Amino acid sequence: MEISEVKVRNEFFVSALFVESTMTDYLSEKLNIKDSINSELLGNHKKALSFSQKTDAILDSLNFSIIDKSKLSVFREIYMEFIENSNAPTLEASFTSDDNNDDFLLILYPQNDYLPREEKLINACYQLIGEVSELVAEQTNEPEVKLTKRNRYFNIENLKIGKFVALFSFLFIS
Description:
Helix content is 56%, strand content 5%. It has helices at residues 3-30, 51-61, 66-84, 91-94, 101-108, 117-140, 163-166; strands at 144-147, 159-162.
C-alpha cells in the first residue's frame, strides 16, 4: 500500500476516534451518565455500545438530513471495512462491502476524470472525513473541549479549542 493510502486510512481511524468521542459525550449527557469512561453502556467494557451502535443511536436521536444520514452511515461502513481489511494491498481492495461504498463516495464527491481511481478514492475519503467530523460536532453541539493543563511552552489553561484539534494536543502538552 502506498504512503498516501496508509495516511488516509490512519486519518480515517483518527477521525473515527473523534466522532466516537463526540457521540459518547452526547449520549452520556442525554442519558445523564456522569462518568462515561467507566460506564458499562458507553465505556470500555465488553457490554458497552460499539461504534456502530453509537452511530445508530445518534442517527435515531438527532435530526439529520437524508444525505447527512447517508454520509454518517457510509463513514461507519468504511471504517468497519478498513478494520476488517487491514491487510488489503490497496485502498480500493479495502472496499469489500456489497453496498459499493467506494462508488457512493465517488458519486458524492466527484473527482477529476484524469485521476486514477485510487487517487479519487483518497480525495473522496478526505472529503468524507472532514464533512462527517464537522457534521457530528455541529449536530451534537460538542465542537469544543477545554484543556486545563499547562505546559512549559504554552499557557493553555482553560483554553477552548476544537475537539478535533484536541486529539493532536499531545504534541503540545507534556
